[in-house]
């Protein structure tokens, strides 16, 4: 079976968040099982040192803004055997983009990408299935139908809060106008005066998945549906949740090249503790902070409201009172949040309680997972969430809010069986702080704490099981 993934991100060369990790992990899990390739725009920001040319190229003609232009998909190898196709025009339309998202032309960029992908597919042997990811690629099934190209499609929703809202003048740029489509209402957002690309994808793709079973249920409710709950309810029969895995070659403290000391369960708890202590020391001493006997509480996140950043702000403000040390790595914050978290950083450093890095940094992220005693994910909603899984692998105990994939992966200590962390329900500062207090007191009960660490590190969080589920679904779609 040949499957092409069409995506805006892939770890490690074009990453913003979890979507990128999914593309790497899932495709690595497919190796030797099916032939899969990932196609992305050839952004200027891509770190080409991570890719090796496969000396393979496919040229085609596409139309952008009513103007014909030559384009090509150039293939590269990632980690020797993963095939990645980077798409760009000869004039390097995407090459001039340094950021993957943002900017006034974000919608245009991904509409052009969808258009170009469909034009490219018409010039080559079709794959057995196209796997599309999020709104950035969700117009592809519609465009295929419009061009009467029959390739089965699966759309995965990684985060329903991003929907690709736009207007007809945007779509006009790829020659899609109200007159040229059979049913213009397909594009209409259900509640707002605009068009909605995610909605078009949901209704046009042959099948639909999202990244955890609980999120698949939640998004069909008004509370979590971001206005598309009715649309999702209407396609219930083709929609399911498949839990994300972790790429255990990339996220693995035993072999992680970004760590100063590697560690694994077979070394025994004493060595694991020593290795984690070394990471803690190396980070805290760089920051000129003391190593206290209190637990080190870490968050690695995009600093956006979805991630419960008001709860994080509250928790970090009470670090001294709660008896915890804290480190936060937060990327993508807006100006207001940058300013309040910068001020909090100053206070934390003065109190010798912790620090806040307002950036995205892969290396720092790996070091923080290794240093953390406790890892917090107080999200308001969370499609799957990967950081709580990474935390488990790295021997940090997660505290999460019971929502989406967090609810599917973390079991509270109070539960008799399979507990691996702490879970709280209400997205309220007191509830979050209570969970942290519970975790802190458990931290000092060595036996219980180490048992939690071992259980987390032992868990099979790999992509294997989820990849099996995707393969079964691929087969079903292709035989329909
Ligand atoms: P989302 O995709 O919503 O951001 P996930 O939990 O699914 O959240 O995935 C987050 C991924 O992005 C993880 O690999 C995490 O380590 C990484 N990440 C998040 N924030 C940062 C940051 N500030 N710096 C480096 N990596 C980050």
Describe the structure.
With 480 residues, the protein is an alpha/beta fold. The protein has two domains: 2-245 and 464-479, 3-Layer(aba) Sandwich (Rossmann fold), CATH 3.40.50.2000; 265-457, Glycogen Phosphorylase B (Rossmann fold, 3-Layer(aba) Sandwich), CATH 3.40.50. 36% of the residues lie in helices and 20% in strands. The protein has 17 helices and 17 strands. The chain has helices at residues 18-30, 106-121, 140-146, 168-172, 197-204, 213-218, 229-234, 269-286, 309-317, 319-322, 335-350, 362-371, 387-393, 404-409, 429-443, 446-458, 464-479; strands spanning 2-6, 35-41, 51-64, 67-78, 82-89, 129-133, 153-157, 165-166, 195-196, 207-210, 239-241, 296-302, 325-331, 354-357, 374-377, 397-401, 422-424. The model has no long low-confidence stretch (mean pLDDT 97). The structure holds adenosine-5'-diphosphate. The site of adenosine-5'-diphosphate has 19 residues, from α1, β12, β13 and α12.
């Amino acid at each position: 079976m040949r499957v092409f993934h069409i995506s805006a991100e892939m770890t490690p060369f074009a990453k913003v968040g979890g979507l990128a990790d999914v593309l790497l992990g899932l495709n690595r899990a497919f190796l030797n099982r099916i032939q899969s390739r990932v196609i992305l725009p050839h952004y200027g920001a891509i770190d080409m040192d991570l890719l090796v040319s496969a000396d393979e190229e496919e040229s085609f003609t596409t139309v952008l803004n009513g103007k014909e232009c030559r384009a090509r998909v150039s293939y590269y190898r990632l980690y020797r055997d993963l095939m990645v196709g980077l798409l760009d025009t000869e004039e390097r339309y995407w090459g001039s983009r340094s950021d993957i998202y943002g900017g006034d032309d974000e919608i245009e960029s991904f509409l052009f990408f969808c258009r170009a992908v469909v034009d490219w597919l018409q010039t080559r042997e079709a794959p057995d299935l196209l796997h599309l990811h999020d709104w950035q690629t969700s117009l592809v099934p519609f465009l295929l139908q419009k061009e009467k190209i029959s390739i089965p499609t699966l759309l995965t929703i990684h985060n329903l809060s991003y929907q690709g809202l736009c207007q007809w003048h945007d779509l006009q740029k790829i020659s899609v106008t109200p007159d040229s489509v059979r049913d213009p209402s397909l594009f209409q957002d259900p509640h707002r005066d605009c068009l909605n690309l995610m909605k078009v994808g949901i209704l046009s793709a042959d099948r639909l998945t999202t990244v955890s079973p609980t999120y698949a249920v939640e998004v069909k409710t008004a509370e979590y549906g971001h206005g598309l709950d009715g649309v999702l309810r209407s396609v219930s029969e083709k929609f399911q949740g498949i839990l994300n895995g972790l790429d255990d070659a990339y996220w693995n403290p035993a072999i992680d090249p970004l760590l100063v000391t590697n560690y694994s369960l077979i070394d025994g708890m004493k060595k694991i503790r020593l290795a984690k202590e070394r990471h803690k020391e190396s980070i805290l001493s760089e920051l000129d902070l003391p190593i206290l006997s209190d637990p080190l509480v870490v968050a690695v996140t995009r600093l956006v409201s979805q991630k419960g950043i008001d709860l994080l702000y509250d928790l970090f403000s009470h670090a001294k009172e709660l008896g915890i040390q804290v480190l936060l790595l937060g990327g993508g914050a807006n100006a207001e949040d940058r300013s309040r978290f910068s001020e909090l950083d100053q206070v934390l450093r003065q109190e010798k309680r912790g620090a806040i890095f307002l950036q995205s940094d892969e290396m720092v992220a790996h070091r923080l997972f290794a240093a953390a005693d406790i890892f917090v994910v107080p999200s308001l909603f969370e499609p799957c969430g990967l950081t709580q899984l990474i935390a488990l692998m790295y021997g940090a105990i997660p505290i999460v809010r019971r929502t989406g994939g967090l609810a599917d992966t973390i079991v509270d200590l109070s539960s008799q069986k399979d507990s691996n962390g702490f879970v709280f329900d209400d997205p309220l500062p007191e509830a979050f702080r209570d969970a942290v207090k519970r975790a802190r007191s458990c931290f000092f009960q060595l036996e219980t704490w180490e048992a939690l660490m071992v259980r987390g590190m032992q868990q099979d969080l790999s992509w294997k099981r989820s990849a099996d589920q995707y393969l079964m679904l691929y087969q079903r779609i292709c035989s329909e």
